[in-house]
Amino acid sequence: MNSRAQILSRIKEHQPELTSLPADLTAPLQYADPVAMFSTVLGNIGGTAVPVSSYEEIQDYIKTHFADQKRIISTLPELAEVTEAGWEGQDPHNYEDIDIALIKAHFGVAENAALWVTEELMQQRVVPFICQQLAVVVQRKDIYSNMHEAYGKVADSVYGFGTFIAGPSKTADIEQSLVLGAHGPKNMTVFIMESR
Amino acid sequence: MNTGRKDHAGLADIFNEDEARVDWHDETLWFVRAKRDKAAHTLPEWEALRENASQIKDNVLSNLHDYLLEFEAKAQQNGITVHWAADAEEHNQIVHSILKAQNVTRIVKSKSMLTEECHLNEHLQKNGIEVIDTDLGERIVQLAEEPPSHIVLPCIHKKKEEIGELFHEHLGTPKGESDPQFLTAAARVHLREKFLTRKAAITGVNFAVAETGEFVVCTNEGNADMGAHLSDVHIACMGIEKIIPKRKHLAVFLRLLARSATGQPITTYSSHFNKPRAGQEMHLVLVDNGRTKQLGRADFRNSLKCIRCGACMNTCPVYRRSGGHSYHTAIAGPIGSILAPNLDMKEYADLPFASTLCGSCTNVCPVKINIHEQLYKWRQVIVKEGYADTGKTIAMKAMDFTLSHPSLYKTAGKAGRWVMKNAPFMVNNKLNAWYKQRDMPEPPKQSFSEWYKKNNNE
Ligand code: SF4
Asked: Does residue B202 sit in the same domain as residue B321?
């Protein structure tokens, strides 16, 4: 008997009598102002929320705050003016020297300031992890209170890779001192776009 | 325990030689525990969430056979190669053969307690493959040639000066430099070079979804993602109990995991791997290594619900004052003391005794495992099987007596706490083997019976 068959038969023999799945949690916490909560939590975990009402505003922000950064790339055509052209489709190792990556998120979650991003919004999976700084654009109306709503939105969508990103890469492995920028982004800016 | 090597009490003695360090270790972990409490209190539905998670995991254990088949089929459809390993040895062989087929001799690995349990690094190194652990804490203990002492905080036992010394020796940082910010920046440079030059990456798995065939890996550092997305071959290793039925259940577990572990609302990254990247190979190894046996032990099968948050360690007065290495097994603390005897009852006969049975672990566990009750039950099994030494047997009998006489225990518990507070030297006697060192850790806020009463009437 191979291991697969052996493991499965032992499970069959040993697993207890079937119990049913519980009903979904009723009434998980809702925030009166999810955007305010999102911004507060993001600040607590080392990120910065920037409310904007147009892509021009984002471009201006980039020009003033990231003026000294060399390699700025984006997956958003609206930001093409201030970002590198033709960076897409290369070997992922070539993105090692990206200073700032600007991407879009499907939605954000107020309770933990996490943003849901799938592969097609990253161009290359490694982009939001390898960049020195990450900036994400999310629509104000797409910020939900909690993770149950979030997975309600993810639903049965199909993706090769998807991730919740909450703040910059971090570690507290040395004596519990928090340090931002463990391997990936040293900070994270979230542009919260007012829908018009 | 009778193997000539030191047992938990003996190893704890060594840890306790440096009293200042023990106090520091104790306080650091208590600080993490306090952060957990704060995070839990932000959610009015915390208790309902725990109950929900517990019931989902109960369902998983009762239907594991079908869920594994469902998961395997979906994962294969998604282009993931699925392997099955009966034990640690087979797991190690599978991983090695995948690497060998690709002629890979240098790899990066993110945190996976399963690979620690299987001693994968040693196996690969023996076969000429260099393994770089990329979680900062794991890299630190790897440089120190030590195992992790905690499942979430691998180098929690190390002082920054010692880490500075290690980095000076291995990474060439200035002598005497021990600033965490500085050392982390040095590690960043050191490890980014590894990510960029290694062709294969190993990661652990936090959750695997039967419904979709995807697996989820949670990190704060982003090291699992850096490794996986830059690799030609990604190998993910998981115990068979990591399955959850549906994608929506991730909401429940992701809300609980980081809050219980470190008090964060969520880890920085919760990455869902569904399909390999174009041109990439993705393998997943499903490992039994004693889990099906534990599934058959009615008293202990609940331990398979564990999501490895580490909360039971942070809160445990014995763990905090004895250190992770005193448990001489990959997974330390209360939960490790339940898992280890399943694998080798003789070798780990001491571990269920390394507890005050105060019940704090059970109170914080996000999936409501009855940890301290299982520790108590293991003691009975171990004594019956003849693996306990005499000192432990007597202590055990006294414990057994009080626990089977609830009213007596109530008095003993209350009196015991008075003694602990006011005359701690009185319990420092041979009968109470664990306390022989010095002052008792710290009296639990409520005795087991008070706790038991409260939690069974509500
Ligand atoms: S037993 Fe519970 S508290 Fe301990 S690590 Fe596992 S899930 Fe966390």
From this structure: no
Looking from the CA of residue B371, the nearest atom of ligand 1 is: 1
SS3 string of chain B? CCCCCCCHHHHHHHHCCCHHHHHHHHHHHHHHHHHHHHHHHCCCCHHHHHHHHHHHHHHHHHCHHHHHHHHHHHHHHCCCEEEEECCHHHHHHHHHHHHHHCCCCEEEECCCHHHHHCCHHHHHHHCCCEEEECCHHHHHHHHCCCCCCCCCCCCCCCCHHHHHHHHHHHCCCCCCCCCHHHHHHHHHHHHHHHHHHCCEEEECCCEEECCCCCEEEEECCCHHHHHHHCCCEEEEEEEHHHEECCCCHHHHHHHHHHHHHCCCCCCCEEEEECCCCCCCEEEEEEECCCHHHHHHCCCCHHHHHCCCCCHHHHHCHHHHHHCHHHHCCCCCHHHHHHHHHHHCCCCCCCHHHCCCCCCHHHHHCCCCCCHHHHHHHHHHHHHHCCCCCHHHHHHHHHHHHHHHCHHHHHHHHHHHHHHHHHCHHHHCCCCCHHHHCCCCCCCCCCCHHHHHHHHHCC
B61 and B204 inside one domain: yes
Residue B297 lies in a domain: no
Q: Do A15 and B295 make contact, defined as CB atoms within 8 angstroms? A: yes
Q: A109-122, pLDDT tens digit by residue?
A: 999 999 999 999 99
B48 touches chain A (CB under 8 A): yes
Enumerate residues lining ligand 1, CB below 6 A. Answer: B 260, 306-312, 335, 364-367, 369, 371
Residues of chain B with pLDDT under 70: 1-4, 390-458
- pLDDT of B414 reads 47
Domain span at residue B351 reads 8-33+309-384
Q: Which domains does chain A have, with CATH numbers?
A: 31-85+92-169+178-193 (3.40.50.10420)
pLDDT of residue B428: 37
Q: What pLDDT shows up at residue B454?
A: 54
